[in-house]
Specification:
The complex is a heterodimer of chains A (about 280) and B (about 280). With about 280 residues, chain A is mainly alpha-helical. Chain A has twelve helices and two strands. In chain B, the strands form two sheets. Chain B has a two-stranded antiparallel ribbon with strand order 1-4. The chains are: A mainly alpha (about 280), B mainly alpha (about 280).
Chain lengths: ~280, ~280
């Protein structure tokens, strides 16, 4: 596998992981606009653990994911007392703060960036990504998935049915942030160098866009969205600005024509109905 | 001075969220378009008042485009879908600006010579003063419009409950574009003011100012015009003070930390009392 191709494939795997990090809160009807911040926490925490404490990346990355999850928990519990877009705004603020703090933290290189000594290749990254995808799929086949979907569809009815709405929203958000942290850790350990500027608001927005494009109603949506919009620009090979213009244009049109995303719950049911004649 | 730019952008945002419950992330893009169009026209030797007027028109037109693709088609979908589409518009505007106008920092010529007043030890730039007065006047006109006119009443009805407004015969399909034109004008005007005063424009300038304006709006209380202005002033002061006490590196931490704190203790913002129309007059 050539270096370029490996780079693209790793980026694809990382984007898929990050997309699932954004999918979990969205599936519960909440928007996380600070995904880049959680990815940054994961990247820097895992890099610090493997650089300074000499931990294996396969231990450092999940540990960093838990750090990101703890930060998410600390934000979600107070903010989710209210409804509406406040969590989105709080995560937006948090993402900005994380970036600014890292820029000023000399311990991890500050604005100059932070080199990572340990290195993992594509198969490892792909394996971790596959485990994340499978785990999320399994999770959504349990009561948790049903409860989260109920909260997403109608908070009030879910509440009446005896579902603790807030607990499920906090859980989905925290789990999503752990996954985003893992994604950041994978990125750090493959590309060997991280800088705070990479984890900016545009990254958060792009990830949310992947998820919404793929569709939030099924577990496969984020996979499709992230894969399509990581590979499409590489195939187009246009200049960086035109890439963004095509991306944003496609997004606006898609959202206008198909606001539920590319695959919806109804599509999947239809597919399965056809596969198993009954 | 920067506070009044924040306040204008925050008013544009608050119009959108107060009346339509739509957090419109394309407004930082419209601010940038206002500023960069001013530069592009002045650069081609167009007199500045004409350039400013044309920039306002371009801003309003771009805002209508956003309306057509976000709000019009998405009244029935989940609340964050228009928000995400408007972010896509921000990305689109920024990169179109790079393609058409280049990604460098552009400088406008000094248009007003040395028009400073010296009052005692204080130096007051005449253009700055004009900008401050005209933006305050615009905001005053807006509040009067909302409070006194037929259009204002229709807008306040939509803000209260858009379904009821429809039942009462308010033509939402025709009035909502007016909201977008107004917020587009405010954002573009802020951009023109910025371009003429600071004389430096850049395709990504909207992000810096726009994100701070969003913070200003939330700190002040979403949907409250006077709250947005107060929020703009507060954010401006926090910025200046954190530079003074902790150094320039901590500006973002201070501003967004304040935002997070407000969301923790008083998520509705400092000034509640509701929507645009209820701004106490």
């Amino acid at each position: 596998m050539s270096g370029y191709l490996e780079g693209v494939m790793v980026l694809l795997a990382v984007n898929v992981v990050l997309a699932y990090g954004g999918f979990l809160p969205l599936a519960a009807g909440q928007l996380n606009l600070g995904l880049a911040g959680f990815a940054a926490i994961g990247a820097y925490a895992s890099a610090y653990l493997s650089n300074v404490l000499n931990l294996s990346p396969l231990i450092a990355i999940p540990a960093a994911g838990i750090v990101a999850g703890l930060v998410a928990l600390a934000v979600a519990v107070p903010v989710l007392r209210t409804r509406g877009i406040y969590l989105a705004l709080a995560t937006f603020a948090l993402g900005q703060i994380v970036q600014a703090v890292i820029l000023n933290l000399e311990l991890v290189g500050g604005a100059a960036g932070y080199p990572v000594a340990a290195f993992i290749r594509f198969p490892t990254v792909a394996l971790v990504a596959a485990v994340v995808v499978v785990l999320v799929c399994l999770l959504f086949a349990t009561r948790f998935g049903i409860a989260v979907t109920a909260v997403h569809d109608d908070e009030r009815v879910a509440d009446l049915m005896g579902i603790d709405v807030r607990a499920f929203q906090v859980a989905a958000f925290t789990l999503g942030s752990i996954i985003a942290g893992i994604g950041g850790g994978l990125y750090a350990h493959h590309f060997s160098f991280i800088e705070a500027q990479y984890f900016n608001i545009s990254l958060s927005i792009t990830i949310v866009l992947y998820v919404l494009l793929g569709g939030t109603q099924t577990v496969l949506g984020p996979l499709l969205g992230a894969a399509m919009f990581t590979l499409l620009p590489e195939v187009l090979r246009a200049s960086a600005s035109w890439r963004y213009i095509v991306f944003a244009g496609a997004l606006i049109v898609l959202m206008a024509l198909r606001p539920e995303g590319l695959i919806t719950g109804a599509d999947v049911r239809r597919l399965f109905a056809r596969a198993s004649p009954s | 001075m920067l506070g009044s730019v924040y306040a204008m952008v925050a008013v544009a945002l608050t119009l959108s969220i107060g009346i339509l419950r739509f957090l419109n992330f394309s407004i930082p893009g419209l601010f940038m378009i206002g500023a960069m169009a001013t530069w592009a026209l002045v650069h081609r030797a167009v007199p500045w008042p004409l350039a400013a007027g044309a920039a306002l028109l371009i801003g309003a037109a771009a805002s209508l485009l956003v309306e057509f693709f976000t709000w019009r088609r998405m009244r029935m979908v989940e609340h964050f879908v228009p928000l995400v589409s408007s972010m896509a518009f921000l990305i689109l505007f920024e990169h179109l600006a790079i393609v058409f106008w280049g990604s460098e920092l552009r400088t406008l010529p000094a248009l007003f010579g040395n028009a400073d007043w010296r009052v005692g030890g204080l130096v007051i730039g005449l253009p700055q003063l004009m900008a401050l007065i005209s933006s305050m006047a615009l905001i005053f006109i807006l509040t009067q419009l909302l409070a006194r006119t037929r259009l204002g009443r229709a807008l306040r009805t939509i803000a209260e409950d858009s379904d009821t407004a429809l039942l009462l015969g308010v033509d939402i399909g025709r009035i909502v574009p007016v909201v977008f034109v107004m917020s587009g004008l405010f954002a573009a005007f802020a951009g023109v003011v910025f371009a003429l005063n600071y004389r430096q424009v850049h395709p990504f300038m909207g992000e810096m100012v726009g994100l701070k304006a969003i913070s200003a709006m939330i700190v002040g209380g979403m949907g409250n015009v006077w709250g947005s202005i107060a929020g703009g002033v507060i954010i401006g002061m926090v910025e200046v003070m954190s530079i003074g006490y902790f150094g320039a590196d901590f500006v973002d931490i201070a501003v967004y930390g304040l935002l997070l704190l407000i969301l923790f203790i008083r998520p509705t913002g400092l000034f509640t009392g509701g929507l645009v129309g209820h701004a106490r007059l």
